[in-house]
Amino acid sequence: MRLHEYQAKEIFAEAGIPVPESQLADSVDGVLDAVDEIGYPAAVKAQVHVGGRGKAGGIKIATSREEAREAADSILGMDLKGYTVDRVLVEQGVDFVDEYYVGVTMDRGEGEPVAMVSTKGGVDIEAVAEDDPDAIAQEHIDPAFGLHPYQARKVVYDAGVPAEYARDVSSILSTLYELYEANDASDIEINPVMITSDDDVIAADAVMNIDEDALFRQPDLAEMEEDSYQNDLERKAGEYGFDYVRLSGNTGIIGNGAGLVMATLDLVDYYGGTPANFLDVGGGAKADRIGNALDMVFSDENVDSVVFNIFGGITRGDEVAKGINEALEDFDEIPKPVVVRLAGTNAEEGMEILNTDLVQVEATLEDAVQRAVANAEEVAQ
Amino acid sequence: MSVFVDNDTRVVVQGITGGEGKFHTEQMLEYGTNVVAGAVPGKGGQEVAGVPVYDTVDEAVDAEDANASVVFVPPAFAGDAVFEALDTNLDLVVAITEGIPTQDMAKVNKRLTEVDTNLIGPNCPGIITPGEAKLGILPGNIFEAGNVGLVSRSGTLTYQVVSNLTDRGIGQTTAIGIGGDPIIGTSFIDALEAFEADPETDAIAMCGEIGGEDEEQAAKYIAENMDTPVAGFIAGRTAPPGKRMGHAGAIVSGSGTGTADSKISALNDAGVPVADTPSEVAEAIEEFL
Q: So where does Mg(2+) get bound (chain A) (predicted)?
């Protein structure tokens, strides 16, 4: 789960990391009130979960009240890579002489966290990692001990941060690691850390991603989750407790187990169709959950056809069949053609129960997907 | 022959009194697994499915001579349960639990470097040596004893590939679900190494998915160290960058690492055919035999 910049900055500020003065606003008047207080220059920054906000027109600098009004007018309500901007952060402009990158993330390969510092801040750090990996100094962290102060100093020296700023930057890094650990972050970064013309060190941006599996022990952060859904369908999936990702195609996909659902998406593509979504009902799904899954996929206006692929281990085929029947019997007319393939535990019992007036049944995964793709083509015409 | 588990494996089930723990203990017993004890704090002295329950893994190991554990403990407590198992010097720990916080697993991962225990999982279906023992939640009836090893990051995709194999009359030495999390114990390389050393395993099916670089590293290992032929499958070719596809570990990062393309080409370069559909994995294996 990704936090908004303003949320991450609140957390940073509370922990003592210097951030520019700022206010959140959701209207043009709100923006004007904020600049009246903060002064000029001020940055007006869209609060949406996309990278590259500046290039996409989601960040504007205002040097006067008139420019602030123009910035607010153009950013509030704009569509930024599929997100509607409903809030902006109005922030004091910083006169800077240099920009650094400071971050902590989980190194999957090593299975331990890694601290990273670079003097090439203010640009896409992933591009730096690709083009000039030596420009990013790294220090792996033993999670049992945390980031030792000497390590925070070392990685800052290794990155080539000038001596007069090294102390402040390593202090920010140490605080970042504490926040990373205390908040169960999966990534935490400041890009850029700005060196101001007054020689101050300040966090000009803030990125914080939280491990969704740890939200049970992060109640304050869990409350922010509501904010993180991209669209109504993802919000609905969150309420139903499904792993769901919406895609742009027209063949709806429901299955159990992440790997098998991904493989089903791939097969739809392989047979010339386009997947509309990833939906994993999880293990041991009962009839009502199956009904909810169908409701999810039918709610997507892009969907022209549905394929149900269940390989029962702890999920029972007869429960799935019951759920499909119950959900479909509620309709006067089936909204979209549904192809079902059941295998594994109680699959035969399930096949017997399935109401074949309502669904098409196929014995193999490949046949089921091909039929669903054909259905999608037919409906789309 | 087999790898990691067989008739002699003596199992303690951590979390045996919970719904999942109880159900799968019964299933494991029915399959013929030597489930000798359960461990649940505060439940010592009880019995589940005829299996005695102890308060700690240590007691269970002492009393019943267990050498492996299966963890069915809820995610909030599972990291601690795995630590308890590791500190008891078992040969093998299989963590079924899905949703363990990554930072808990980073600490477990550190501990793993200090002990001799193998960890399988977490967030995995477990491991099965057909006809001998299963530790986990895999449906025993689709497996058949034979000469093909299987290693996979996904549960149900494993079942799909196994049923394709079994339908063709191809049995399995051992099947290992290594789990879909970013940090796991036994890696592809660990499993491949074990199969390579097993004289009964004549071919290996390996099912990977997007995210991380384990498959790329496995490809390198296969090219440099293995004689046993391997056939592959990679799930997630159509996954968009930046989206978690169910598994916490199945995510393609913005910079393009962990993509299906990168894994498929690494495996192809190592001489591993990568199937376009799950059923083609069984076809490729049949050609090896």
A: 191, 205
